[in-house]
Amino acid sequence: MAHLGLVTVVVRDYDEVIAFYRDVVGFELLEDTRIDEDKRWVVVAPPGARETAVLLARAVTDGQEARIGDQTGGRVGWFLNTDTFEGDYERMRAAGVVFEEAPRQEPYGTVAVFQDLYGNRWDLIQLRRPGGTGQ
C-alpha cells in the first residue's frame, strides 16, 4: 500500500524552525542529518505519527526564498489532525502559536487556523467521527 511519506516546508534557517516545530507546535524531531556544509535533512512530525512527516528544507535560491511563508498563495496548506483539540489548542497558544481565529465548528469538525514561524497557514483540526455528530 502506498502512502504520502513527506511534505516539504521551505524555511529560512534550520535551527530556528526546528525550535518552532519542536518547542512551540510540539512536533518530534525525527531526523537532522548533515548532507554537506550548507544542507541538512531535517524531518519533524507530530508525536506518534506513523506515515506523513514534514521535511524542513532551507531555501537556496531567490525563488525559494520568495516562497517562504506563502507557499500556498495564502491558503491553508497543511492540516494537523488531533483527537484532543481543546488541549492542543490551549497548549499551542500558551507556547506562542499565532492563531488567526477562535476555534469554530464546521460540518467536518472543530478547526482553527494558525501560522507557522514564517506565516504559512495550517489548520488545527479535530474531524467529526464518521456517522456521528460530535467529536
Automatic annotation (TrEMBL):
It holds the Pfam family Glyoxalase. It comes from the Bacteria. InterPro entries: Glyas_Bleomycin-R_OHBP_Dase, Glyas_Fos-R_dOase_dom, VOC_core. PROSITE patterns: VOC. Residues 3-127 form the VOC domain. This is VOC family protein.
